[in-house]
Amino acid sequence: MKNIVGQAVRGKDFWDRKSELAKIWQAIENGTHPLLVAPRRVGKTSIMYKILDEPKDDYAIVYVNTESAYSANEFWHKLFNALMDEEFNNKNAAKFKNFCAKLKTFNIESISISGSIKLGDAKELNYAEAFETLIKDIESDKKLIIMMDEFAQTIENIVKYSTIQEAELLLAIHRTLRQNPKIASKISFVYAGSIGLESVVERFNAIKFINDLNAIKITPLSHSEAKAFVCELCQFIQDEDITYLLEKIEWLIPFYIQLIIQELNTLYVEKALHVIQKEDIDEAILRAIECNHYFDHWRKRIQIAFEPNEFKFAKDLLNILSEHSTLESKEYINLGVKHSLAEDEARKIVHALVYDGYINNNENPKIYRFNSPILKLWWYKNVAN
Ligand SMILES: Nc1ncnc2c1ncn2[C@@H]1O[C@H](COP(=O)(O)OP(=O)(O)O)[C@@H](O)[C@H]1O
Ligand SMILES: [Mg+2]
After folding, report:
1. pLDDT tens readout for residues 271-288
2. How far is the C-alpha of 109 from the C-alpha of 29, rounded, in Å?
3. Do 152 and 247 share a structural domain?
4. Last residue within a domain, chosen from 190, 217, 244
5. Contacts for 348 with CB less than 8 Å, ≥ 6 apart
6. What is the model's pTM?
7. What is the DSSP letter of 66?
8. Is residue 344 part of a domain?
9. Same-domain status, 189 and 311
10. What is the atom index within ligand 1 of the atom nearest the CA of 16?
11. What sign results for the dihedral spanned by CA atoms 297, 298, 300, 304?
12. pLDDT value of position 296
């Protein structure tokens, strides 16, 4: 297993996430449509690749990342393209004969701005109809899983660069498709995104379009899993120092573990160490937070997503947390007032920060803190000061 830092992992580099995979498969087999919920870098894409690479029998999997879709049309274009992809077709041609044959008759170039798609036989259908026509050709004992990565980003893009109505319509079409028994028996839609879909749609009161989804939280590793993961990646660190390392990382997502191990590996070679000690771990963490490219998206994200006064509020709140560690609900409401935000507006932004993985109030509903001490340290050094 290689220590990959940053890119979604695949094959031998994937650290098994048995319980997350089991939960997702169970949701699919129960006929529900999963929404994978986890902030950036928790491992959603890697898990979806695992499903793509090792599907259960009688399932065909399509994976599509729609992050760069800025309109509903671009979304559909990407989805139909993914369905027509040669690799998908080669892999599934035997299992889904009729379906793959039907796909070949689609003329993807003709997805129109008005939202219709022209079939090979010159019939013009809207997307939902085109889907239904296609799905009819799946043999009923087989199922198609369509995994849409960064779907929430797509919705946010459409709200920002097209209209709220267009985003609502796309969400409504998806809901209609999911609620059509003929379709739902043959397809499972899996939605994922590093920004919370709930928090994106909450901002324009569209929760009703997604409240049928089966939200599955992708959680950090447990302490024992994280320990085993460290042992797999780094052979020259002793037991008690692993405990120290994990205490420092606290939010035990594979990414932070790999990032610090990468720095430890460099130190090991640079200083010709025989064994890693606590001070090396401290140094590795300090070195890791020098790597701005791993962290800067956390700052940019709130700048892009929020209105200017909302951004200033969110930034102030995180600045305070990076210095004082905790903040009570009543204090953030006061901070909102300073930025001309009503209590409700301030609350929505705090919710978004929780959904998107910046902060949590797990220990006490009234008290917020950073999820990751490493991000907190980076924020303190690079944003707050
Ligand atoms: N199951 C896993 N095994 C090994 N590394 C992982 C795993 N999941 C996540 N990672 C690490 O986290 C990083 C981000 O993973 P990714 O799947 O892209 O997360 P997400 O899609 O949630 O942003 C990867 O580069 C890798 O370092
Ligand atoms: Mg991802």
Report:
1. 888 889 999 999 999 999
2. 34
3. no
4. 217
5. 199, 202, 203
6. 0.92
7. -
8. yes
9. no
10. 1
11. positive
12. 95
- Own/partner contacts of 102-110, CB < 8 Å, gap of 24 or more, are 102/133, 102/134, 102/137, 103/134, 106/80, 106/130, 106/134, 108/77, 108/80, 108/81, 108/84
CATH of the domain at 48: 3.40.50.300
Q: Quote the tokens at residue 194.
A: 């590093």
Written as six digits, the tokens of 1 are 């297993």
Whether 3 is covered by a domain: the verdict is no
**Separation of alpha carbons 167 and 269, rounded Å:** 51
Q: Are residues 91 and 175 in the same domain?
A: yes
Q: What is the pLDDT of residues 292-339, one digit of tens each?
A: 999 999 999 999 889 999 999 999 999 999 999 999 999 999 999 999
Q: Within a domain: residue 1? A: no
Whether residues 299 and 277 share a domain: the answer is no
- Biggest alpha carbon distance in the chain? 71
Q: Is the CB of 140 under 6 A from ligand 1?
A: no
| Eight-state DSSP code of residue 113 | T
| Pocket mutation for ligand 1, best pick of 255, 257, 371, 374 (most atoms within 8 Å of C-beta) | 255
Q: How far is the CA of 199 from the centre of ligand 1 (A)?
A: 22
Range(s) of the domain holding residue 70: 11-217
Q: Do 128 and 35 belong together in one domain?
A: yes
Atom of ligand 1 nearest to the CA of 42: 22
Overall domain count for the chain: 3
Q: How far does residue 219's CA lie from ligand 2's centre (Å)?
A: 14
